[in-house]
Amino acid sequence: MEMAGRQEILLMDFANTCIQILGLLKKATEGSDYQVPQEDLDYLDHYRPLRDHYAHIYNRLPGGSNAKEVVTEIDDERGFQIIIGFEIDDQDRVVLEEKRIEVNDRGAERVLEIGKRNLAALSPSAIAGLHQHFVQHPDDIPPPSAVRRGSLTRAARDEERGSRGSSVES
Amino acid sequence: MDRQRTFDDLTSQQRWKLQALKAELSTQPIAETISECIRLQWLGREDTEEARENFRRAYSAGRAAQLVLSYLKYLEDVNSRRKQLGVAIHEKLHYPYPTLKEEIEAYTSQLISMPWRWPAGKRSC
Prior knowledge:
The complex is a heterodimer.
Chain A: H1 2-28, H2 38-45, H3 48-55, E1 71-76, E2 79-84, E3 87-88, E4 94-96, E5 99-101, H4 105-136
Antiparallel strand pairs in A: 1-2, 3-4, 4-5
Chain B: H1 12-26, H2 30-41, H3 49-94, H4 101-113
Helix pairs in contact in B: 2-3
């Protein structure tokens, strides 16, 4: 039972990680004109029912408002029985209310491919945006030395400690 | 309507400067390239609410890209743990342990002294 519970936590972690990647990829594109292909967004979003399921697991227990998703009550000649759990199909997918969710190797590989491919496309797109801007404003082109290294993450200075875990400069 | 300027309209010095800037940016990690590309467009301009909004957008996009990388690594880790635990559950179901009375004491003492490590079960060879 303890191992099965841990397995469920890992399924939640898997689904939640995919939903976080979805939200963060969309946010990362706000820095350029690049658009994440809709097919990729849809694939990442297919993990949402499982993420939502575990995020509100207390409502999915017997008697809960969403119990019907995974709770089956059987009342027959053997008496009243409650069965909790979802099906895993022959392709190792979690079946949740008719939705088939790829919490498996194939799903992990696809999410990794989506993430890496889209991240790789962001950088050229951001540089293309900068190129367009400075072609229109050539007198403002800064020297290469204006590019800051490590600007997103650096150790907090003494006077900043306690206010932020990590900090950035504007 | 004014014609949009193109790269060919720039002076050779401006072209060199822009290419050098882009070359420098392309050596940066992805997340920092994204944020720097926006920040540099607002460098030296008046400190307005619009400029600040763009600085926020720059760092938000860069930080988001940085976190995507972290979450991708984490997904690999979660999937690996999921598989390991699946194998452990499979073994437990097929090779239950303890099954003999004398095995129970060894099993419980191991579980109590090292609760974070599941005691090894019997395996078929």
